[in-house]
Amino acid sequence: MSDLSVFPITKRWPAKHPELLQLYSLPTPNGVKVSIMLEEIGLPYEVHLIDFGKDDQKTPEFLSLNPNGKIPAILDPNGPGGRPLPLFESGAILQYLAEKTGKLLPQDAARRYQTIQWVHFQMGGIGPMFGQVGFFHKFAGKDFEDKRPLERYVDESKRLLGVMESHLAGRQWFMDDDYTIADISMLGWVRNLVGFYGAGELVEFSQFNSVAAWLERGLARPAVQRGLNIPKRP
Q1: What pLDDT digit, counting tens, does each position of 14-29 carry?
Q2: Are the C-beta atoms of 211 and 162 separated by less than 8 Å?
Q3: What pLDDT score was predicted for residue 42?
Q4: What count of other Cβ atoms lies within 10 Å of the Cβ of residue 102?
Q5: Other CB atoms within 10 Å distance of the CB of residue 221
Q6: DSSP symbols for 86-128
Q7: Distance between CA 27 and CA 71 in Å, rounded?
Q8: Domain count, the chain
Q9: Are 132 and 140 in contact (CB under 8 A)?
Q10: Could you give the count of Cα atoms lying within 13 Å of 11 in the half-sphere of its Cβ?
Q11: Same domain, 124 and 196
Q12: Phi, psi angles (nearest 5°) of residue 171
């Protein structure tokens, strides 16, 4: 069994089960990508709450695993070659777990890259733009007198939803009948946009019928329901 004690993060968040994959996270749209993925593929893991209220993400121990100070991050004791693998960035973790288990990523090379392109679409567009809508609509940004930033991010979010709508028309999932890491990468973000951020009316979500149906299908999955609440908030 791999010795995880050499990783500083285990000093602050000790592994009770060091033989299992260690997940360091919080149930945010980025964090739940990995907990949903782990629940979907059935890979045993141990979860550690990174409490933003206590600035856990800024501690030397966490930064030793992710120098960018963001969640989620993992430490897999059974990485490539049987050696421990520390990994951050949710998109990279999704791809790693899919390749490690052979699940939720098509084996066909062309379809594999097409799936990955949608993950990058989420990482480069959906996440940043929806997150800015949340900031300027729900959080401190809502008090800014200049409403141009909010308008900019709302317009771009509507455009991105339009891209999703066009692609999902006539499809069950982003890769047709195959539920993949592409879907997992986006479910939490769309849910947050219309739910927690309360921006559904702002982005005219009611006009995106295919996206709404896709979201409903995704949220109905038992593994998604479990993953959305892992780890439990303090």
Answers
A1: 999 999 999 999 999 9
A2: no
A3: 98
A4: 9
A5: 17
A6: EEE-HHHHHHHHHHHHT-SS-SSHHHHHHHHHHHHHIIIIIHH
A7: 9
A8: 2
A9: no
A10: 10
A11: yes
A12: -120, 150
Length of the chain as a residue count: 234
Q: Which of 85, 103, 121 is the last residue of a domain?
A: 103
State the residue range of the domain holding 138.
109-221
* Dihedral sign computed on CA atoms, order 50, 195, 133, 150: negative
Phi-psi region of 145 (alpha: psi -120 to 50; beta: other; left: phi over 0): alpha
Q: Can you read off the two tokens belonging to residue 128?
A: 């940043």
pLDDT of residue 2: 72
pTM over 0.85: yes
For the chain, residues with pLDDT lower than 50 are none
Instruction: Decide which of 103, 137, 165 is a domain's last residue.
Output: 103
141 and 73 in a common domain: no
